[in-house]
Write a structure and sequence with these properties.
Elements (H helix, E strand, L loop, with lengths): L4 E5 L3 H13 L3 E5 L2 H11 L3 E4 L8 H11 L8 E5 L4 H9 L4 E4 L4 H21 L4
Parallel strand pairs: 1-2, 1-3, 3-4, 4-5
Helix pairs in contact: 2-3
Length: 135
């Protein structure tokens, strides 16, 4: 399989830069977007393998990005979507998962856990490709 591409949608520059560095150090190709609208455009044009997305962002929040993909872009709606956010309360976690997110993590970022979650997504992607299923 070619190198896995992960899109990081995060409005805080320092967090986004750190995410991209960690992902690239782990051997992934990392793309970045500064807000939800830019992230949605990149999802639709670059077709990343995995999306890591903040929730609270300008222009379009993470829930809106995920809902747009789920409702209007079925061709890419199975791409694993991981919320990475400061919203740690139970209601937000449930809303994110019920909205279609593959996983939900809270800040501060535990990179070992994030990479473990990404590895799980990669395993599922590779297995689906071997069996001929779409994501």
């Amino acid at each position: 399989m070619s190198k896995i591409t992960i899109l990081c949608i995060e409005d805080e520059d320092d967090i986004r830069t750190l995410l991209v560095e960690e992902l690239e150090d782990a051997g992934f190709k990392a793309l970045q977007a500064r807000n939800g609208r830019e992230g949605l455009e990149m999802i639709l044009t670059k077709w990343p393998d995995i999306v890591i997305c903040d929730i609270t962002m300008p222009e379009m929040d993470g829930h809106q990005v995920l809902a747009e993909i789920q409702l209007n872009h079925p061709e890419i709606s199975n791409v694993p979507f991981i919320f990475l956010t400061a919203l740690a309360d139970r209601e937000n976690v449930i809303a994110g998962l019920q909205g279609g997110a593959a996983d939900y993590m809270t800040k501060p970022i535990d990179f070992d856990i994030l990479l473990a979650k990404i590895t799980g997504c990669v395993t599922r992607i590779e297995n689906d490709q071997k069996t001929g299923r779409a994501f």
